Amino acid sequence: MKAIEKFSGLGSGNFYVPLVVFSYGCSSLSGVFVNKACLSAFGFGYPLALLLLQLIVAVVLVNVLDYLELVEIHKKPFKELTFLFIPATLLILNVSVGLYALKLVNIPMFSAFRRLSAINVMILEYFVLGKVESTRVIATVVFMVFGSFVAALGDVTFDPFGYFLVFLNNLITGGNLVYIKKAQQVTGLKALSLFYYVSLFAVPICFVLGLLSGELRVAVGRVVSDESLHSAGFAIALSLSALSAFMVNYTTNLCTAATSALTTAITGQVKNVLQTILGIVAWGYEVTITNLIGLLLALIGSTLFAWVKYNENSKSETPVATENENLTKTEEEADVVGVEQGARKKPSSMSPPSRETDPPKESPPVKSV
After folding, report:
1. Sign of the CA dihedral 60, 66, 71, 75?
2. Contact 348/365 with Cβ under 8 angstroms?
3. 190-237 pLDDT tens trace
4. Which of 29, 106, 137, 244 is most buried per CB count within 10 Å?
């Protein structure tokens, strides 16, 4: 029995598909907020510690689901996976820089600028993969860029170093995504399997970096000694942050398998709108007319981008990016963890792996929340 069929049997009739779509939307939306809460609201500014926790939880949960046969991880010999050390290293840089940026920049502007990583992805795909985007796709990206910069002109909380980190994050995200696509070609792995192996390879690298930098020692000492971190609120925020990377990647695969790439894309765009609105409401964000107009233009541009990409890929019968954060892709990135991000309209990695005689098929890049 296929993993997706087994899992869907746990649902109740017609409620399964709406439940999957709702789960994907909530997990994708909540990632950036729980990380912002840990970093800013509770002052737990230790990105490597957060990332290590997310990676460990993701690896453990995927193994549990594989054991229960709810997902299936394609087993590969170690020598065929050594290429994944590159995306694993880029993943650590991507998420660490992204979390530092999120600490300094408000959520609406962070989200708007993170979607501009599409520019870096297009440039790197041209040089590394030889892929050229259409004029319509380029036009939608230019529209997003215009909207984001208009929003920046009206940002009263402007932080130059924070903005610098967001654009550096976009640059790293572009390289991360391109190498994830390259890794899919080299290994033939599907999205969830690729997410698992990249996370597994990243754990020891992140642990060593955390030890050498002293961040892990300071983070553990802070949790032990700071009574403000002994609250139920921090425990919940930290737990949700730890789950975020796994939930975004897993529910993305469930949503694409149970519905379609278009449904996943629409859900992703609704998430972008809600994330901007909630970001304005949260943390005392001061909005101006110029800022609001720019954010609206950026959202329109991201929606047009997703629509154009879907139509073009549907006509050519090639996999389609499903979430704008996958411009970067997850935008989002780096917002949480994972290899930021999109779902493709094809069998998910929860289905049994194809036979070795079949050519490897591209699946959705794994995401960073």
Report:
1. positive
2. no
3. 888 989 999 999 999 999 999 999 999 999 999 999 998 999 999 999
4. 244
